[in-house]
């Protein structure tokens, strides 16, 4: 009965539009009161949930990304990508995918990718004769790559949701090959659609121009190296590397790019507060909710229910993927990771799946969900920039969904894609 | 009623602005502290031990003040499909119930956060040496602001004035992160 109170209250509140953080908190209080425990325990758990040093990396990464965006990194990455892949068929589509991949290494956020890269690329693509739906769908799908390429703060949310014991360095490393694979798959989809629609190539600007654009973008790209190298080598913790990223972003945008104004700095700071405080509150409230789920043995019950259906790991992973894809259509990224990790991680572990591998599967699933209505925040941003409806985007998005789902299946059933690189570093 | 709502709106606007800037200052200070920790370890060869405890303390304020501002600005992550699909009279009732629940949870944070702070006030936090009770003050303060902002939104909704955004954020929130 306690489980019904916990999940019933949570679902009901979610359905009537109460914010996720409060759904988690109120459902926990209701359950604790039903069980005859003092409600103060919920707030104690909530406080503990907000007291992890690793959590600080989330606002720092968002802050660093926002500073780099306002400091002019996106334009330089686009110039560099255009010089590298613009001469392929459907050149600007390819440029879009490559820029999103590089930019993902700086922002770590799919929405930031879609708005920063899409804001520059979509109008330009439309002006050069590309259809708006193509420009929107390439941007929205390529933005998902940011979730896999380090530094992905969603990997940190996953690590925290898994109890904080998973190595963030391993999670960052595990996302690299799946991220590059998704980049290649989306470039292929963009190329195939471009050939079908007869989109042009851009002229190759010559090796000297390529070199010049690479040099201009280098300070931004170096940030990826500092973060990844710092965490991987153990020089910094994830939190320290994210803080170094903020300091580096401030220095580069003021001293090298000379584009960061005081107003932009204040806006970036307040923007980081607005974006991350809500997510961190969800993590805190999930501390109480997760404690109750463990107390009420929810993971054990889920394992038993899954085992009743099948004991084949391939079937179980397929089931988990389908559940996550469905949940992703109406849940935002962070709440989905925070709520699903304590439920599904013990299940897949019971079937021999590595927690690092599952992290990549979960994040890719949740990422695809960001491009699916009714709640597809990345798709909404891209559609708003391209001035087309969700319906128009949905009519021609299928080749890109196909590419993303193909990569998801590969990542799910070939663990080496995620685990080979982290093992290499060990 | 209208006069009280107007007063509450003015108070809410000021408090929200102060909370937002305090949280922003907290983020900058957290950056400085953690960066100082790295600088101390690698350059001064003397790791400052207060960095982790101090920045964690700041983070609690950052989260709870920022989250309270999110309540007033309807920026919280939510699932509004149920609301959007409801007929208008039911939608209004649901919005009021939802805001009422957020307000009640804010009050509970204030009450239980204060209780926890009072119960641990005589203990000292190791390293930074302040009372352990301070650890729970952000929950109480954030709860008070959350309750106030939710009450303001309820009153604006009831009186038909729409100065503050209503509902729980955008349909299909953009707050992915």
Helix content of chain B: over 70%
Strand content of chain B: under 5%
- In terms of per-residue confidence, which ranges of chain A show pLDDT below 50 for 5 or more consecutive residues? none
Largest interface (CB within 8 Å) is between:
A-B, 72 and 62 residues
Number of helices of chain A: 21
Oligomer: heterodimer
Kindly state the percentage of residues in helix of chain A: over 70%
Average of per-residue pLDDT values of chain B: 84
Structural class of chain B: mainly alpha
Q: How many beta strands in the DSSP annotation of chain A? A: 0
Radius of gyration over C-alpha positions of chain A, nearest whole angstrom? 21 Å
Architecture blueprint of SSEs:
The complex is a heterodimer of chains A (426) and B (177).
Chain A: H1 2-15, H2 20-34, H3 40-49, H4 57-70, H5 73-85, H6 91-107, H7 110-127, H8 132-142, H9 153-161, H10 168-197, H11 207-233, H12 238-256, H13 262-295, H14 298-309, H15 313-330, H16 333-350, H17 355-369, H18 377-386, H19 390-396, H20 398-413, H21 416-425
Chain B: H1 2-44, H2 50-72, H3 81-85, H4 88-119, H5 137-159
Helix pairs in contact in B: 1-2, 1-5, 2-5, 4-5
Short description:
Chain A is mainly alpha-helical and 426 residues long.
Task: Walk me through the structure.
The complex is a heterodimer of chains A (426) and B (177). Helices cover 79% and strands 0% of the residues of chain A. Chain A contains 21 helices and no strands. In chain A, α6 packs parallel to α8, α15 runs antiparallel to α16 and α16 packs antiparallel against α17. Chain A starts with a helix and ends with a helix. The C terminus of chain B is likely disordered. The chains are: A mainly alpha (426), B mainly alpha (177). Chains A and B meet through α1, α2, α3, α4 and α12 of A and α1, α2, α3 and α4 of B.
Looking at this protein, list some descriptive labels:
heterodimer; A: 426 residues; mainly alpha; 21 helices; 0% strand; globular; B: 177 residues; 71% helix; disordered C terminus
């Amino acid at each position: 009965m306690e489980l019904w109170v916990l999940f019933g209250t949570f679902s009901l509140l979610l359905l009537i539009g109460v914010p996720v953080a409060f759904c988690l908190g109120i459902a926990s209080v209701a359950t604790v009161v039903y069980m005859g425990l003092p409600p103060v325990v919920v707030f104690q758990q909530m406080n503990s949930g907000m007291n992890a040093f690793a959590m600080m990396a989330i606002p720092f990464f968002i802050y660093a990304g926002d500073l780099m965006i306002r400091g002019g990194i996106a334009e330089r990455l686009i110039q560099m990508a255009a010089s590298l892949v613009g001469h392929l068929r459907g050149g600007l589509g390819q440029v879009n995918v490559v820029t999103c991949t590089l930019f993902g290494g700086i922002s770590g956020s799919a929405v930031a990718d879609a708005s920063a890269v899409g804001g520059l690329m979509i109008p330009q693509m439309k002006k050069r004769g590309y259809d708006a739906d193509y420009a929107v769908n390439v941007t929205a799908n390529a933005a998902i790559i940011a979730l896999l390429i380090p530094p992905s703060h969603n990997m940190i949310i996953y690590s925290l949701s898994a109890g904080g014991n998973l190595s963030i360095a391993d999670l960052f490393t595990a996302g690299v090959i799946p991220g590059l694979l998704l980049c290649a798959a989306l470039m292929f989809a963009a190329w195939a659609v471009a050939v079908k629609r007869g989109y042009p190539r851009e002229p190759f600007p010559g090796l000297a121009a390529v070199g010049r654009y690479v040099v201009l973008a280098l300070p931004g790209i170096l940030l990826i190296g500092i973060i990844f190298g710092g965490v991987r080598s153990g020089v910094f913790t994830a939190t320290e590397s994210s803080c170094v990223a903020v300091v580096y972003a401030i220095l580069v945008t003021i001293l090298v790019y000379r584009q960061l104004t005081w107003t932009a700095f204040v806006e970036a700071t307040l923007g980081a507060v607005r974006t991350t405080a809500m997510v961190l509150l969800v993590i805190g409230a999930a501390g109480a909710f997760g404690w109750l789920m463990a107390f009420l043995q929810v993971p054990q019950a889920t394992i038993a229910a899954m085992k009743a259906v099948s004991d084949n790991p391939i079937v179980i992973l397929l089931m988990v993927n389908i559940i996550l894809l469905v949940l992703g259509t109406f849940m935002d990224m962070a709440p989905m990771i925070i709520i699903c990790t304590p439920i599904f991680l013990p299940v897949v572990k019971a079937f021999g799946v590595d927690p690092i591998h599952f992290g990549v599967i979960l994040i890719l699933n949740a990422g695809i969900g960001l491009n699916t209505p009714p709640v597809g925040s990345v798709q909404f941003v891209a559609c708003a920039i391209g001035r087309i409806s969700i319906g128009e985007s949905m009519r021609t998005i299928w080749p890109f969904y196909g590419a993303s789902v193909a990569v998801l299946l590969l990542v799910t059933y070939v663990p080496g894609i995620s685990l080979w690189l982290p093992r290499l570093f060990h | 009623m209208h006069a009280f709502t107007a007063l509450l709106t003015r108070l809410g606007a000021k408090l929200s602005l102060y909370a937002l800037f305090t949280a922003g200052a907290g983020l900058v200070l957290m950056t400085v502290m953690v960066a100082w920790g790295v600088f101390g370890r690698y350059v001064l060869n003397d790791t400052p031990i207060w960095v982790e405890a101090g920045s964690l303390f700041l983070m609690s304020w950052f989260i709870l003040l920022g989250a309270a501002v999110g309540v007033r600005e309807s920026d919280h992550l939510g699932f509004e499909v149920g609301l959007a699909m409801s007929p208008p009279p039911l939608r209004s009732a649901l919005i009021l119930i939802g805001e009422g629940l957020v307000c009640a949870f804010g009050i509970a944070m204030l009450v239980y956060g204060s209780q926890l702070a009072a119960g641990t006030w005589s203990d000292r936090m190791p390293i930074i040496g302040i009372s352990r009770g301070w650890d729970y003050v952000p929950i109480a303060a954030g709860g008070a602001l959350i309750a106030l902002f939710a009450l303001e939104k309820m009153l604006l909704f009831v009186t038909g004035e729409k100065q503050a955004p209503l509902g729980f954020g955008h349909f299909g929130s953009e707050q992915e992160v």
